[in-house]
Design goal:
The protein is of the alpha/beta class and about 325 residues long. It contains eight helices and 15 strands. The chain has two domains: about 10-130 and about 305-335, Quinone Oxidoreductase, Chain A, domain 1 (Alpha-Beta Complex); about 135-275, NAD(P)-binding Rossmann-like Domain (Rossmann fold), CATH 3.40.50. It is globular and about 65 Å long. The protein binds NADPH dihydro-nicotinamide-adenine-dinucleotide phosphate. NADPH dihydro-nicotinamide-adenine-dinucleotide phosphate binds near residues 160, 164, 188, 276 and 323. Keywords: NADP, Oxidoreductase. It comes from Ascobolus immersus RN42. One of its GO terms (cellular component) is cytosol.
Length: about 325
């Protein structure tokens, strides 16, 4: 046991699914007890991800109530479990960033060591939590789901969102793909353009399907990266090129209804519905991608975009904001020390 560890902590929790107002601040949550394969972390910033809203609304089933949301944070290690491999190189006091099943809108989290990463020196406060989950999502989608190559046309929806800014930067600047980016406002489109998108189109006010067809001379894009889901799935099948790939990786507008697989036949389309965790299931996969990601951030070749840092008392507002489509890049929750 750790000598000056408190018994209770401050955290955001909810007891039922519903709108952002179900999120409540509690100052009497038990500090979790880590199991041997876990590390106990004292958090400084929790990273918000759109998936936090799926659990809150019940789109994804909440494991149990009361529930402390959050799949990502940065902070410092308090203790390391006895069966954590030495090769993970994790020690008390280390500054780390991690992704976990849940429970990061809190002062303390017990997280599986496999997905805990030591933050390289030189990464500013908050930037590690603003990088890990969404950056890993972008790298793995591009490499593993779609294997995008130089010169490929790629359509990216919600291009100024958390994952979107990573995808646009990585694909246009490092892979040298030709990016068509969609977003709901001019400000977001301007950002996507500044990050390297060749073509930008407002998919709320304009006909993006027509634009994609015109830009690609009717051939369509080799890859569609679609996190919007229900609203854009049919369009993805329409604008993907023959032998192209549709990567459906999110539900921000609602779940994609069941798909008749024969719809893939006319153009021999590949369809994937990937999730990050199945690409980083081993320590080697996780470290390889995280090393690459943080190398880019350190050298400044890929930029971190932070929309806003919310004090923990304003966690409710952070959910209102991300769902209102007004945010650009990452939302963070500051954890009281
Ligand atoms: P974002 O910061 O991208 O926020 C979601 C964005 O979705 C909004 O900014 C908005 O952009 C767009 N959007 C489109 N339609 C709607 C709608 N009806 N309501 C709200 N937003 C809408 O979130 P994240 O970066 O955290 O996640 C992006 C997506 O990627 C999510 O769908 C998420 O579930 C998915 N994801 C999937 C992972 C996986 O492993 N499969 C891992 C990580 C993320 P605009 O205003 O431009 O339309």
């Amino acid at each position: 046991s750790t000598p000056d560890l408190p018994k209770v902590q401050t955290a955001i929790k909810y007891n039922e699914n519903g709108p952002p107002s179900v999120l409540h601040l509690s100052t009497t949550e038990p500090v979790p007890t880590p199991s041997p394969h876990q590390v106990l972390i004292k958090n400084t910033f929790a990273g918000l991800n759109y998936i936090d809203t799926y659990f809150r609304t019940g789109l994804y089933p909440t494991p149990s109530f009361p529930f402390i949301p959050g799949k990502e944070a940065e902070g410092h290690i308090i203790s390391v479990g006895s069966s954590v491999p030495a090769s993970y190189n994790l020690s008390p006091g280390d500054r780390v960033v991690y992704t976990t099943a849940n429970g990061t809108y809190a002062q303390y989290t017990a997280a599986d060591a496999l997905h805990v990463y030591k933050v390289p020196a030189g990464i500013p406060e908050g930037h590690a939590a603003a990088t890990l989950l969404q950056g890993l999502t972008a790298i793995t989608l591009v490499r593993e789901s779609a294997d995008v190559k130089k010169g490929d046309w790629v359509l990216i929806h919600a291009a100024a969102g958390g994952v979107g800014v990573w995808l646009v930067q990585y694909l246009s600047q490092k892979v040298d793909a030709r990016v068509i980016a969609t977003a709901s406002t001019q400000k977001k489109l301007d950002l996507a353009k500044s990050l390297g998108a060749e073509v930008v189109v407002n998919y709320v006010s304009d006909d993006y399907i027509k634009t994609v067809k015109a830009v690609t001379n009717g051939a369509g894009v080799r890859v569609v990266l679609d996190s919007v889901g229900a609203k854009t799935f049919d369009g993805a099948l329409e604008v993907v090129a023959r032998k192209g790939t549709v990567v459906s990786f999110g539900n921000s507008s609602g779940k994609v209804p069941p798909v008749e697989i024969a719809r893939l036949a006319p153009k021999n389309v590949k369809l994937l519905r990937p999730q990050l965790f199945a690409y980083i299931a081993t320590r080697e996969e996780f470290e390889t991608y995280a090393d690459e990601l943080f190398k880019w951030v350190l050298e400044g070749s890929v930029k971190v975009f932070i929309h806003k840092v919310y004090p923990i008392e304003e966690a409710e507002l952070s959910h209102v904001d991300i769902e209102s489509r007004g945010t650009v890049g990452k939302l963070l929750v500051k954890i009281p020390q």
